[in-house]
Amino acid sequence: MYVAVRRYEGVTDPAAAGRLVNEGFVPLMRQVSGFVAYYWVDAGDGVMVSTGVFQDQAGAEESISKAADFVRDNLASLLPNPPQVTAGEVLASA
């Protein structure tokens, strides 16, 4: 399995961002080949973190590309700063 994590700082309206992600981005993630799970987390203080879990690296990479497009097209005013992106293979899980 592979995971893609994106950390957004300076989020201007976490509730609105969460609503848009749930309504628009989550359905896109479900269409990615190898999709397993997706989480959008409000970490407080204007920080939000997304985590996507996929069966393979290709799915994780596709999710990163789709996220960049979705943020640019739908969330630019709410997520004004580029995310810190971390992706890789899962080596241990519970």
How does this structure look, described?
It comes from Streptomyces pratens. This is ABM domain-containing protein. Helix content is 38%, strand content 33%. The chain is α+β, with helices and mostly antiparallel strands and 94 residues long. A four-stranded antiparallel beta sheet has the order 2-3-1-4, with helices on one face.
Task: Give a quick set of tags describing it.
2 helices, alpha+beta, four-stranded antiparallel sheet, 4 strands, ABM domain-containing protein, 94 residues
Q: Which strand-content bin applies to the residues?
A: 25-35%
| Rg for CA atoms | 13 Å
Oligomer state of the chains in this structure: single chain
Q: SSE order, as H and E? A: EHEEHE
What is the CA–CA distance across the termini?
13 Å
Please tally the β strands and state the result.
4
Helix content, binned percent: 25-40%
Give the structural class. alpha+beta
Low-confidence parts, pLDDT < 50 over ≥5 residues?
none
Average pLDDT number? 96
* Widest sheet, order of strands: 2-3-1-4
* Major beta-sheet overview: 4 strands, antiparallel
- Summed up, the helix count is 2
Overall form? globular
Task: Write a compact overview of the structure shown.
The protein is an alpha+beta fold.
Question: Could you outline the blueprint of secondary structure elements for this entry?
Answer:
Blueprint: E1 2-8, H1 14-30, E2 35-44, E3 47-54, H2 57-75, E4 84-89
Antiparallel strand pairs: 1-3, 1-4, 2-3
Helix pairs in contact: 1-2
